Amino acid sequence: MKGDLLLKFKHVSLLFALLLVFNFFASNFVFAEEIKETEPTLVALGDSIPFGTSLPDRSQAFPNLILDGETTVINKSAPGQTSAQLLTQITTDPETGQALQNADVITINTGNNDLLQAAKIAEIAAVIQAGKEIDYETLQKEVAAAALKAGENLAIILHTIREINSDAPILLYNIYNPFPSLEAEPLKTLHQVGEMILEDVNKGFPLVASSYSNTFVLDAYSAFDGNQVELVYGFPDVHPTNIGHQSLAMLANSLLLEMYPPVEPEPEYELDLTITPNVETEGPVTVHVNTKGHTPLKIMWMAGEKTELDFISLEDVNFLQGNSFEVNENGKYTVLAVFSEDGMDRAIQTIEVSNIVPPMENPTYELDLSISPSEDTEGPVTISIDTKDQTPISLMWMKGEKIDLDFLDVENVNFLQGTSFEVTENGKYTVLAVFSQDGMARALKTIEVTNIVSSVEPPAEEEPPTEEEDNTPPPPVKKDETKQPVEKKQVAKSGNKLPNTATSAYNYLVWGAGLLFLGLGYMATVKIYKRKTRVQ
Fold it and tell me: What total of structural domains would you count in the chain?
């Protein structure tokens, strides 16, 4: 009893929680629909590289490709911009300052134009093509001075950004060598010049970045080294191709995904309802609940097509201990599964049961026997069997009035191929029809045939033989003259008369026939009596 109360209390507590949740959703449904997960804001600073110069479609610039484009990009870059110009921008441009303040991620590409202008790459290419010597000493001095100034500007830029936004990660790209290592001039020499300049310059990026929190150097140099033919348009265009921009975006993705692993999407809770059996049945039908690999805290069901709010009614809710339940009526049934204590994680599904049929009544098996012809006949008589629209497995008949058990005597049973048979004698005939393999469904019927008459007339009764007169004249007799003649008496005749010997034989024949019939009757009576006694 105590356990039942505790279980009921748990059900009520869960429903109370569901009630609060459902009421919250009902009153705030429209508001919840308007709230969407905001994408992170990415602010891109720098020169023509993040700007997308030379690309057929600037929307394919690498800032737009970071995190597969699932960001809101504010691109504040400008072609030809130097580190000094970038510093001026972030300290004087209100829009840039506001963008940095709201940024979730910041990318910086700077120093490229500082070095290109100091190295005077176009002049170096002309010197190479003219076959003249490059003044490496002057080149190194000018590049070193430019690199030093760019480093100072970069430090101030990072400091300023951290004052505006203290926690957004800053992704600082170092400088790639745009010239491939080829044998043809001027690319061969330009590649060597680029390597000489960048060897020391790129070492400075980590030194500067290490002084500021959450600031990371992305190694563009290594990503492009040896791959300039595919990643750069080619001299005199030093800008990345589409593939080059994809490589720059991948550098950012690798870092950001490591820093902020993707949040696993909330599991989608679904129910799959099935029934067994799924063929017509008298019931019950079992409804199975498949929670698609998730473990619910509670499963409940209601008859009818319901919504989540309908499950607040405790009286009409059925709580499951397992993952199935039985129903005995056709109709719709709704299942609600709750996967979290707060009721936020849930799934609802409705299924319709339509394969329950009324129980079938046990059929009544009867036989109707008829004869044809029904008038007097010399035979044969046909006995027809009507099984009342039921199809028997077997039909059989026996002569006489029989019971079911008599048909076990197979030797005396006549099996039918059709639904009729002929008889040539009057008497009773019994038919047994079997309608099931187990023999439980059967019907027995007896009919009597009395209309067969004999076609042979009984022999006429023979008259006893009469004494014939002897017309032979008697032999002459000698008269005894001494004797007196005897007077002969006249006898009157009154018809034929049996002799004494014939009359006695006839009497014996009549008495013998009577005794024979009496014996046969006695034997038949005894046989019927024994049969009835055996049946009882």
Answer: 3
